[in-house]
Amino acid sequence: MTTTGFNHLYVETHNWGKAVAFWKRLGYELEFDTGHNSGMLRNAAGGATVFVAEQSIEDPLATELYLGADADYEAPDGVEVVIPFHDTHWGTKVMVIQDPDGHRFRIEAPREAPTG
Question: Around Cβ 72, how many Cβ atoms within 10 Å?
Fold first, then answer.
């Protein structure tokens, strides 16, 4: 069972406006704004989306790469699962894996397989 490729990049910022302007200069358009200094940007050429979220100036910033997967995805033997799948508040489930060098990545999948 394999992943489906890069889903999106999650980027935290201390300045929502400047971060969105940066991504727009790179060809991304704001797909939606959550109304609380976060939102999704998409490039017209396709590919992975970028989700930008403003954090307090006191908080350190994170960047996370999300890989896509089908609802029935299971990590293959030899892949270290740091955090098993858990439901998110945005309607998916996420697992955290770690490569041999200690880099962590998130795998995101639908909560349930499509019916039909």
Answer: 10
Average pLDDT per 10 consecutive residues for the chain, totaling 116 residues: 90 96 95 95 92 95 93 94 94 92 91 74
**Strand ordering across the sheet containing 80-87:** 28-33, 38-43, 49-54, 5-13, 63-68, 104-110, 92-98, 80-87
Q: Terminal CA-to-CA distance of the chain, rounded, Å?
A: 21
For 87, counting Cβ atoms within 10 Å of its Cβ (0-12 exposed, 13-18 middle, 19+ buried), the class is exposed
Overall size of the chain counted in residues: 116
Give the integer Cα–Cα distance in Å for 32 and 105. 24
Say which residues have a Cβ less than 8 Å from residue 100's Cβ, sequence separation at least 6.
none
State pTM to two decimals: 0.82
Residue written as token pair 């499509």: 114
